[in-house]
Amino acid sequence: MRRYGFVYNPTNDLALEAWDEAAGWCAARGIEHWGFAAEERENIAAALPGSEVLFSLGGDGTFLRAAAAVAEQSVPLLGINLGKIGFLARSESFQLASALEAFSEGKWSAQERMALRATVQRADGGERTFTALNDVVVARGRLPRVVRLDVAIGESHLATYIADGVVVSSPTGSTGYSFSAGGPILDPVSRNIIVTPIAAYLATLRSVVVSADQVVICTVVDGEEAVISIDGWIDEPLATGDRVRVSAAPLPIRFAELHGLAPFWDLVRQKVDLLPR
Q1: How is domain 3-113+252-274 classified at the CATH fold level?
Q2: What pTM does this model have?
Q3: Which positions are catalytic?
């Protein structure tokens, strides 16, 4: 039996309506289906095995939570944009029924996107690992004070930044925080890592792009209430001496790319035109 999964933003009325519509569409065609709010991580993880696809109904935040759910599985991810800009979702709200129809008819292909693996190495010896689709950000916390970060590319010291923080981005995340901080937009299926400082004081290196074989290392030299942010929704405090190692994740995240959609660079032009000036 066919089985579709859905995650949705429970605070978005359009997303709730889309979930109702999607559930009705599946029921009318005898397709087994399930749906949970994007924050229900344990329920989503338990329901994913055996699913053909995971649909994200919401904005980029919902999509990133859905990406975290499929990061260790081969379930393809397909986004329906119900937010404002929505660089990650390739279909808009009015295209929900047609997207469901296209997927059910096999009119899609899998597109692999490089993810990031971030390992936090504590000065006291503790260690924790995260997976990010978009970016890993090491930045100041709530206090309006800059942090001092040593950034290395492999064994080479790149720079010591006095800044609000540093964004380490994947190609998919190049249209997000990295772009806002002045970084370049990369083709999302490329394999590179982007390093972009945020409001750096007297910095000559504004943004660099390195290969996916490299490891980017950010060490907190000084900074009260510094934090690491994973895709903008998982936050952990950092202390002086803590180190964050970012590399390409061993497994890609699979996007379900529907046939006939506008090319990525057309999407970029359309979305950038919507950004506030």
Answers
A1: Rossmann fold (3.40.50)
A2: 0.92
A3: 60
